[in-house]
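Class, carefully examine what follows:
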Amino acid sequence: MVQLLVGVLSDSHDHLQNLKKALEVLQDEGAELIIHAGDYVAPFSVALLAQLSLPWYGVRGNNDGEVLGIFERSSGKISSLHLKIEEKGYRIWVSHYPQPAEAAFESAHFDLVVYGHTHQAVIRENQGKLLVNPGEVCGLLSGKPTVAICDLSKGVAKLIEI
């Protein structure tokens, strides 16, 4: 199958310095698509994503307060509850929450399932399908800001501390 490198991040919580660094790291890793699994918090975090030359998508998290501003800044790239993406023949499913993500992963209908919310990094693989929580960009709970890069052609993902 054709290669697709997906950069995954979550829970940036308005930490603009870490968000900027996370996006730079993912681009340096060769990401062709960026996914944010929610908790931007305010529209100015979304503005950084909107400046990307890469395609990007995201979902709303439980701490996203100024919803109208977030949706306006995203130009339709952020969904409210969950998101399905098809890119280069790969199926990707995104939610902020772990429970629906687990169900999507168990369905085996998706090559990559992404979630956030817990601030704890998780990478699971099952027959080339991936379940990824990239941890937290903000670094507030773990003290370790992290992102993930996923190579869907190989069915592998790795965590990167930023």
Remarks:
- Residues 16-28 form the longest helix (13 residues).
- Helices lie at 16-28, 43-50, 67-74, 98-107.
- The longest strand covers residues 82-87.
- The chain has a mean pLDDT of 96.
